[in-house]
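Example with several molecule types.
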Amino acid sequence: MASVKRIMSELAAYVAAIADALDNKQVGQVIDLLVKAHEQKAKILVIGAGRSGLVARAFAMRLMHLDFNVYVVGETITPAIGPNDILIAISGSGSTRLVVTAAQIAKEIGAIIVAITSYRDSPLGKLADYLVIIPGRTKIARRDDYLARQIIGEHEPLAPLGTLFEVSSMVFLDSVISELMARLGYTEEKMKAKHATIE
Amino acid sequence: MASVKRIMSELAAYVAAIADALDNKQVGQVIDLLVKAHEQKAKILVIGAGRSGLVARAFAMRLMHLDFNVYVVGETITPAIGPNDILIAISGSGSTRLVVTAAQIAKEIGAIIVAITSYRDSPLGKLADYLVIIPGRTKIARRDDYLARQIIGEHEPLAPLGTLFEVSSMVFLDSVISELMARLGYTEEKMKAKHATIE
Amino acid sequence: MASVKRIMSELAAYVAAIADALDNKQVGQVIDLLVKAHEQKAKILVIGAGRSGLVARAFAMRLMHLDFNVYVVGETITPAIGPNDILIAISGSGSTRLVVTAAQIAKEIGAIIVAITSYRDSPLGKLADYLVIIPGRTKIARRDDYLARQIIGEHEPLAPLGTLFEVSSMVFLDSVISELMARLGYTEEKMKAKHATIE
Amino acid sequence: MASVKRIMSELAAYVAAIADALDNKQVGQVIDLLVKAHEQKAKILVIGAGRSGLVARAFAMRLMHLDFNVYVVGETITPAIGPNDILIAISGSGSTRLVVTAAQIAKEIGAIIVAITSYRDSPLGKLADYLVIIPGRTKIARRDDYLARQIIGEHEPLAPLGTLFEVSSMVFLDSVISELMARLGYTEEKMKAKHATIE
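Resulting structure tokens for the full complex:
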């Protein structure tokens, strides 16, 4: 299956391209917000639908390893969100209705909204206090080779539906974790102590 | 936050390196098994703990979009697994106890075990009928530059705990989905019809 | 802990009181709808927030044992809902926003809405095509004894928040399962064959 | 559907019968353990498979409303369990393999095991430091009337599989919550402040 290896390399190349397209200022503001939240033990809730929801959970798990006070909307022991708590909402389109409704509720309560999305002008983008734009498939500068065109969808896309957004968001958020480790002085060993032991 | 962009690029580079290290024969056998399962509407269950479990779910969601008969162990409507059904188990270490126990139960029942792991000789690796080795952090050929050494852990790793395995597995399985689309003749449009509408 | 036994008996007595208050016609219509859905393999999605969501899942699991084509909104392999599919929404207040939003989406798509709620005039109640009213705490005829008054909330309630609704809904839906077994000719043995084997 | 009402009443009557059969000493010890855990902010993890897992979550949610330091095994932000932390495991048969494996892991780590089960001599029962026996279907004193015999299974049971255990466990644990409210001085109003606001 040489093609699987080739597609995997191409996906990796696109994640690198998306890294290049990130706005350092947006990213820096979110990192600063998270560092302050860690210091103040502020409550953070994450939300996303479908595969974006899985990416949100993967991020929340690492935030827990870093001793953040973090919860996943919809899980059992998630408490009330209150004023000045933080909601991190992940939605490529920025218009997933249950996610937007959740962000609206949080906004009404006075929480801070962080949006990870491809669209600044989406309903979620407009609600956000902090925003990181992860360019979606249509936004990536088109490259010349056949596979590149396939991935971005000129032919049948190799990364269907939200795949590029989801994979890029996951790698982006893992990079945020890495930066937080440095900023907060956490070693891998220290994170391991929090890692679930019943699994 | 130039460093976040740099880490993200490095993570992407490592995913590409892992793509190179894949065994085409292993991958080909799993693709063939899945194509046959699609044809025969065989039941597929996926399992993983922690972030590997999230990767398993992300894969299951796309298999559902491709009309596979797929379930996630532990979710509400997951039925009995029986002889000749398929269990896809994801575990970097291959020794996550609840995952290994689940694989043992499935094996006793006569199911086919597919393992995605870094360790062929792990308890999960030994139980597997089909195996795809995704090299873990320690297995990647060490590169010279500072960030590379950081990622693979000579200094404090930039990708702590199972991060490299999880990200690589996610991109690998998305590449499998892409190959399955081609083999089974699915367009993105056709997959979209199955995509959850309440979200 | 004699008091725990006493509270448990009182809760049981209230569930019995709620059974008396059920509207046979409402219940009969939902049973008929489900029998028809079974026959036609119609898609059923269930939804609820918090503990009502857990009750929804407990019901979905038994429907799966009865070979219904049933899914839980928000779980991994839940597909699109379409026209004439069924959404069963559980909400005591009938105004849980994410549940109401989900019901609105389903309604726009042309799905059939079944609401299990305490309030006919709630947003969810108004959206519903089929409705079963499970009386909430304030609706139960007040009894004389001390514990009864405690449970219904004259003093500090013994069954706080939505407890009475949730417990009553669970027992009600298990009674619906029992009736469906009879109507569809399922034995316990037949249901057992579908019961998850990896657990 | 007069039969649904009748079954519901019968299920309620059986829950009351199970209340009578509870061992006050067992219940008292668990309440005392929980009161101490509250005081010391000890970590509590709950686990169960299938519908017992849903009952475990329903209990965990109320413990969270009472400010317990509680988590659900398998959810995203569940941290490591350590020595003297508490694992509450719910399994009617007491031999659900993933639950027993989890209890074994917790035991090896030095955690305190609380089992809610029908069988003292089951693998889970034997691992337990604290035990509450909730009699299963076969254990209830047989009554004379037709419906009673149906529920306990002489004819096709009205409460198939683990239904009686699950419903009884849920009502039992809600009664424990009520007792904890009294012991810890929590009002419904105070619990409401913790209740999820995004839903």
